[in-house]
Amino acid sequence: MEKLKSLADLKKIREEAKGKLELRVRGDSPEGLVQVKVAMATCGIASGAKPVMDFFVEELDKRGIGAIVTQTGCMGYCYAEPTVEVQLPGQEPVVFGYVDRKRADEIIEKYIKNGELVEGIIPVNYEKID
Amino acid sequence: MKEIALHILDIAQNSIRAGAHEINITLSESVPDDILSLIITDNGKGMDQESCRKASDPWFTSRTTRKVGMGLPLLKMNTVLSGGEMTITSEPGKGTTVTATFGYSHVDRPPLGDVSGTIALLILSNPSINIVYTHICEGTKWSISTNEIKEELGEEAVTDLTIVRSIREIINENVAAIRNFQNGYDKY
User: Fold this and answer.
1) In a mutagenesis test of the A interface, which of B74, B152, B158, B181 is the best target, namely the one with the most A β-carbons within 10 Å?
2) What integer best gives the mean pLDDT of chain B?
3) A41 touching B, CB under 8 A?
4) CA torsion, points B152, B155, B159, B160, in degrees to nearest 10?
5) Which of A4, A42, A53 sits opposite B166 (nearest CB)?
6) Is the pLDDT of residue A29 over 90?
7) Is residue B186 part of a domain?
8) Which of B90, B81, B91 is nearest to B4 (CA)?
9) Does A33 touch chain B (CB under 8 A)?
10) Among residues B133, B111, B110, B112, which one has the least CA distance to residue B121?
């Protein structure tokens, strides 16, 4: 394939792929999407959060999982970085610590696809009792 | 931080947290002058002189989730280790500028790393902020910005993380072009 050199080239490709794109957008309702938040403060970045985020963006798309991948700041779990918060549709968010590409793969295959928990979960103990 | 790209990602978060609408990231390199400089300017809320002075102290932070703030101190350390320096200028209500310089050929200068991927990620994950990236090589300039992408591809394109690879490729191609495919520059 010819290398992309300008935004105009990208526009052309996007227009060609538009039909395919619209089909997919219609299939995904926003509530039905998995939310993945990668902690990206100094501590996260220094421990390798960026390759982990790249991995989630690429792999979720490749494996056809409707998901929104975003960044968050430091949640105070600096010792367990990179940390990733995953919220399956209609469920409480779960925070995974010490995530590298291998564990990210596990999270996608086991937790996101089947709801099975994987190692390295950070217990959420800050929930208030009303 | 093992790469300059990671510093960019990190320091840009400060600008985002400061409520900036526009962030200018300029990376300037020259092998003949043996210098690499990184300038990040934002129009966020800025800092008073006292905070500005303390910003490169690792025990100072404006956060409440933890007691340390390592982003700027780590950047400063890497500049000093490679024969450069870091300066911060800021004015409350106007914005902040962080300037970092490095000796290009110094063994302790971190490699550039994935700068194009970092810029693409910053642009696509902060659609409401105009991020302007300028690359200068021996005086030749090239730049790309959030607003330019919006103009060319439409508003919604900047929220589409799947074009991250395409934007990265465009940046790579253009930086290679202004470098004139010369040797001696970092892998980009």
Assistant:
1) B152
2) 93
3) yes
4) -50
5) A4
6) no
7) no
8) B81
9) no
10) B133
ipTM: 0.83
Is residue A74 helix, strand or coil?
Answer: coil
CA count, 13 A, side-chain hemisphere, A16: 6
The total of structural domains in chain B comes to 1
Task: Tell me what pLDDT residue A126 has.
Answer: 52
What residues does each domain of chain A span? 29-122
Domain coverage including residue B72:
4-178
Answer yes or no: do A7 and B118 touch at CB < 8 A.
no
In a domain, B183, yes or no: no
Amino acid occupying residue B85: E
Counting every residue written for chain B, the total comes to 188
Mean pLDDT of B91-102: 96
Structure tokens at A81: 């970085």
What does pTM read for this prediction? 0.89
CATH number for the domain harbouring residue B133: 3.30.565.10
In angstroms, the CA A70 to CA A49 distance is: 12
Is the model's pLDDT at A26 over the cut of 50? no
**Which two structure tokens, joined as six digits, stand for B13?**
């978060």
Take residue B43 and report the two structure tokens written for it: 């129009």
Task: Choose among A10, A42, A69: nearest Cβ to B71.
Answer: A42
Domain contains B185: no
Give the model's pLDDT for residue B161: 74
Q: Which of residues 86-105 of A touch B (CB under 8 A)?
A: none
Higher pLDDT: B75 or A21? It is: B75
- Chain A hits for B121, CB-CB cut-off 8 Å, are 50, 53-54
User: For the domain with range A29-122, which CATH number is right: 3.40.50.300, 3.40.50.10330, 3.40.30.10, 3.20.20.140?
Assistant: 3.40.30.10
pLDDT in tens, B134-152: 999 999 999 999 999 999 8
Tell me which residue in B6, B13, B152 faces A7 most closely, judged by beta carbons. B152
